[in-house]
Amino acid sequence: MFELLGIPPQALFGQLLLGLINGSFYAILSLGLAVIFGLLNIINFTHGAQYMLGAFVAWFLLQYLGIGYWWALIIAPIAVGITGVILERLMISKLYHLDHLYGLLLTFGIALVIQGLLRNEFGISGLPYSIPPQLAGGQNLGFMFLPNYRGWVVVASLVVCLATWFVIEKTRLGAYLRAATENPTLVGAFGINVPRLVTLTYGFGVALAAFAGVLAAPIYSVNPNMGAELIIVVFAVVVIGGMGSILGAIITGFGLGIIEGLTRVFYPEGSSVVIFVIMAIVLLIKPAGLFGRAA
């Protein structure tokens, strides 16, 4: 069928794989944004810089301490998550009772500072980060060649996203988090430390971004601009799925990645704008997003 359309199957499935990989990063990054906005009501524009910091921490660990990829998957999210906790306690917590615009401006400014410092130190040329030996090579599926590492990225992202959704929507901890956003005074009356819960939630959202950065390091070059190039698309994904919707972030992230990959096959010129066109259409039809709730 694809030959009739003049499209080699290898090209189609190759672009679908690329779209699925991009969708994996869209999903996990938009999930972190959705967690922070849905539970803290903060538009975290520092998310792209925190994603980039995850990749840089992995590079630092390998370059200076000889700590490889698998440990970096654990250490980098924890380290960047701790910086997020400090940031939330020192700055962001002061803005919870103000308009969303103040949080957006603060986090945007912090992102510019982080990117500027690393750009001044390392420039804009990418720093290489090798694929772990266990995931080198690939599998010949007949209709396409599947690199092992790219398959791992898709599986790891899906597992993390679904685990996060399960914790927030199906566990007692998730119930506490959701209740704290609706009525923090009542939740505090049950002996729960709401400020600590909020701080840890922000740290977890930041850790998700850093985890995505470590996953991205072997695929893309580690450079200070890697987050800035991605965050605008991720915000569009969040808006389409519905601000604060956990399930919407996951489904929309993977779905839009696949749509973007298909667009590269059938209409390459539109691949860079298709997500924004979809966002405009969704906002016209359902301003709260596909999975969002009207205010």
Description:
This protein has one domain (9-123, 131-136, 145-285): ABC transporter involved in vitamin B12 uptake, BtuC. It contains 11 helices and 2 strands, in the order ααααββααααααα. The protein has helices at 9-40, 47-65, 69-90, 100-122, 148-170, 172-182, 184-189, 194-216, 228-241, 246-266, 274-285; strands at 138-140, 145-147. Strands 1-2 form a two-stranded antiparallel sheet. The model has no long low-confidence stretch (mean pLDDT 85).
Walk me through the topology.
Blueprint: H1 9-40, H2 47-65, H3 69-90, H4 100-122, E1 138-140, E2 145-147, H5 148-170, H6 172-182, H7 184-189, H8 194-216, H9 228-241, H10 246-266, H11 274-285
Antiparallel strand pairs: 1-2
Tell me, what's the shape? globular
- Total helical segments: 11
Radius of gyration: 19 Å
The CATH architecture can be named as: Orthogonal Bundle
Q: Major sheet, described briefly? A: 2 strands, antiparallel
Tell me the CATH topology: ABC transporter involved in vitamin B12 uptake, BtuC
Give the low-confidence spans.
Answer: none
Give helix and strand order, one letter per element, not per position.
HHHHEEHHHHHHH
Number of strands: 2
Note the beta-strand portion: under 5%
Q: Provide the structure class.
A: mainly alpha
Strand order of the largest sheet: 1-2
Total domain units: 1
Give a quick precis of the structure.
This protein is mostly helical and 295 residues long. The protein has helices at residues 9-40, 47-65, 69-90, 100-122, 148-170, 172-182, 184-189, 194-216, 228-241, 246-266, 274-285; strands at residues 138-140, 145-147.
